[in-house]
Amino acid sequence: MREKTSYSSHAVIIVLAAIVLLMCVTVCASALTVPAITVDSSNLTVKDKAQAVITGSVSTASGQKVVLLAGDGATVLNEVSMENTGKAASFKLPVPASSVKRPGTTKLYVKSLQAEGVAASSPAAVTVKAMKSQTITAPGSVTLTNLKTSASLKAKARSGLALTYSSSAPKVVAVSSSGKLTRKKNGKATITITQKGNGTYLAAKKKVTVTSRKSTRKEQINAAVAWAVRIAKDNSFTYGSGNGAHHNGCYFCGTNYGPKKYMKPSKKYKKTYCCNPFVHAAYAHGAQNPKMLEGCRRANGIGMEKSTFYKFKCWKCVGKPAYKKLQKGDVLVRSDHVAMYVGGGKLAEASGGGWTAGSIAVKKMSKSRYNGFSYVMRYTGY
Fold first, then answer.
1. CATH no. for residue 198?
2. Of 187, 213, 239, which one is at a domain's C-terminal end?
3. pLDDT (0 to 100) of residue 239
4. Does some domain include residue 354?
5. Range of the domain at 107
6. Which of 9, 71, 189, 346 would you label with 271, given CA atoms 20 to 30 Å apart?
7. Residues 276 and 364 in one domain
8. Residue 12 has what pLDDT?
9. What ranges in the chain are assigned the alpha helix state H?
10. For 73-86, b where at least 16 C-beta lie within 10 A, e where not — what string?
11. What does the alpha-carbon distance between residue 127 and residue 133 come to, in Å, rounded to a whole number?
């Protein structure tokens, strides 16, 4: 009987110990601090090749780990250990590139684990959206002049999506919805090209600086030469003299009035030029020289005398320079003919008489032919 009593006492003691231990665990568990975890952004958007980094804070840092979990809420993708300060602390969790769908949306979770004195936190959901980066191709700068009054930016977005354009100074340079620039006056403007992006591509922006100014002397000469070469190669234009066209007339100004047999009612004048109006028109219409243009319209252009050049205040006589010293745009003069030197040992001229297409042409000039001219007039610009 005494042994049974002893066994019963042991059982009671064991049960009591278990109860005490359970109470201790319960008390200890209730004593754990439950930290709150906060992420700075629950929706992250990153470029297709950029790494996402989740930032945030834990309300109590007690040496616990903050872990990044996959969408299943269990697979650990990354972790960082917090210091044991007992205070709030921030953290950074880089997201492994292989864990993010590109392009696409990936859902992840962040939580802190249990540690001494702190319980595990509730998970915070973070959505990472990886989008394709988008670039806009366009020139960095554009120059418009009174010779080049418009230009197309020809901008394109990597996505192929539509672009929008705006000008910081539309009274200087206007831009259309298709990216066409139009010069209004001298000055500068910044054209902003924007693509707002979509579900796959990020938004993009590019700025283009546009300078609007008066053309330089070199640009004027190049434009005059280009005009002369273009007309010379246009076989619809022919040489005209005497009855063919007025000596100083210009087709584009409507001043090359010839006999009625060469004209038709309600039709443009005959496409003819003789030597001096051809050169004059190149600087009037090609270089857009207002003084030369006024002379062109009045059929009062340059002739074979220096004085007829000087009246436009944009010419100087350089005598008879060496053949190799000739400059592009120089006008060679003799008593019965003028021609434009277009570079490369060539002349653009209207000569030869008749109505053949070859009478206005770009021709190779030999040294002996050059010797037949009396002097050279050089354009000084406006």
1. 2.60.40.1080
2. 213
3. 84
4. yes
5. 37-131
6. 346
7. yes
8. 47
9. 2-31, 217-233, 275-281, 290-297, 306-310, 367-371
10. eeeebbeeebebee
11. 18
Cα(156)–Cα(131) distance, rounded to whole angstroms? Answer: 19
Q: Token pair for residue 199?
A: 């579900």
CA distance 115 to 234: 89
pLDDT at 89 over 90: yes
Same domain assignment for residues 125 and 143: no
- Shared-domain flag, residues 177 and 298: no
CA distance 251 to 241: 13
Give pLDDT, residue 22.
Answer: 47
- Determine the residue type at 27: V
**Structure pTM?**
0.70
Structural domain tally of the chain?
3
Q: Which of 86, 97, 98, 128 is closest to 110 using CA atoms? A: 128
Residue at 4 is within a domain = no
Return left, alpha or beta for 343; rule: phi > 0 is left, psi -120 to 50 is alpha, else beta. Answer: left
DSSP state of 333: E
Do 209 and 292 share a domain, yes or no? no
- Tokens encoding 95: 């997201």
**Calpha distance 104→85 (Å, rounded):** 38
- Average pLDDT of 347-371? 86
Residue 2 falls inside a structural domain: no
Q: Using one digit for the tens of pLDDT, what is the confidence trace for 149-182?
A: 999 999 999 999 999 999 999 999 999 999 999 9
pLDDT of residue 367 exceeding 70, the answer is yes
**Listed range (90-94, 123-127, 183-187, 195-199) with the worst mean pLDDT:** 195-199
Instruction: Kindly state whether residue 22 falls inside one of the protein's structural domains.
Output: no
Tens digits of per-residue pLDDT, 294-334? 998 888 889 899 999 999 999 999 999 999 999 999 999 99
